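hey
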C-alpha cells in the first residue's frame, strides 16, 4: 500500500513493540540531561541544528557566568550572550531566540505560569514565540513541564522510515498526533521513547546506517546502509 502524506496510524502494538526493542537494546535513559526545568528550556533552543555536546559546552559557559536564568539573560547585552553560547553554533540567532523565550516566560510568570495553563494553551503560547517551532515547543512541554506531548525530530523520522512505519516526510503534526493517539498519555513513556530513539540514531541509525551494530533489523528496510 502506498502511504499518503497524511497517513500515519501504525497502531499501539507496533509502536510499543518498537519501544520495547529499543529499551531492551539500550536500557532506560532517564533523559533530558539538565539540572532544572529552565535549563531544559534553554537547551531546547540551543540544540537547534547542533549536537548535544555543543549544547553542554554552551550551558556550562552560561553557568560559569551566572547567566543561566531568565532575568540574567534578559539583563545581559545580546552580544555578550551570543559569545557565551558560541559553542552551540548560530549563536547570534540563538541569543535572540533565547531572549524572546525569556521575555515570554517573564510575562507569563515563568515556567510555573505555563504549568497553570492547559497543554494546548501552553503549546500555543510557546509557538507564538519567534524562533520556537513545534519540536522546540514540544521539547519544553515534555521535558520541562511534564506534559504528555510526543516530540518528533529528524531521528524519529529516519527510524520510522527505515522501519516501514512512515514515509518520513509527513507533516510534523501528523506524526505527533499519530504517536499520541496510539500510545497511552504517559509522560515517562514519551520521555524514554524519545531518548531511546536519539540513542539508537547515535549508535546505529545514522544518516548512513550501520546495520552491523543495529538490533532492529527484523523490520528494517535497510535504506542508506553502510
Amino acid at each position: 500500500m502506498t502511504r499518503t502524506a497524511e497517513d500515519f496510524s501504525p497502531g499501539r502494538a507496533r509502536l510499543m513493540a518498537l519501544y520495547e526493542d529499543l529499551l531492551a537494546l539500550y536500557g532506560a535513559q532517564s533523559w533530558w540531561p539538565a539540572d532544572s526545568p529552565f535549563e531544559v528550556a534553554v537547551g531546547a533552543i540551543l540544540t537547534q541544528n547542533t549536537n548535544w555536546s555543543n549544547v553542554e559546552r554552551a550551558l556550562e559557559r552560561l553557568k560559569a557566568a551566572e547567566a543561566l536564568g531568565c532575568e540574567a539573560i534578559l539583563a545581559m547585552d545580546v552580544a555578550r550572550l551570543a559569545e557565551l553560547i558560541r559553542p552551540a553554533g548560530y549563536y547570534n540567532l540563538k541569543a535572540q531566540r533565547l531572549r524572546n523565550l525569556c521575555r515570554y516566560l517573564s510575562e507569563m510568570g515563568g515556567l510555573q505560569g505555563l504549568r497553570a495553563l492547559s497543554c494546548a494553551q501552553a503549546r500555543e503560547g510557546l509557538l507564538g514565540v519567534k524562533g520556537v517551532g513545534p519540536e522546540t515547543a514540544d521539547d519544553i512541554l515534555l521535558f520541562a513541564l511534564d506534559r504528555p506531548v510526543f516530540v518528533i525530530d529528524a531521528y524519529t523520522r529516519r527510524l520510522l522510515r527505515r522501519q516501514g512505519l512512515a514515509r518520513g516526510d509527513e507533516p510534523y503534526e501528523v506524526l505527533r498526533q499519530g504517536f499520541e493517539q496510539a500510545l497511552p498519555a504517559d509522560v515517562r513513556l514519551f520521555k524514554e521513547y524519545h531518548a531511546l530513539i536519539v540513542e539508537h540514531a547515535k549508535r546505529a541509525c545514522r544518516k548512513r546506517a550501520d546495520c552491523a551494530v543495529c538490533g532492529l533489523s527484523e523490520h528494517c528496510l535497510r535504506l542508506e546502509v553502510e
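The chain is about 60% helix and 0% strand. The CA atoms of residues 41 and 96 lie 14 Å apart.
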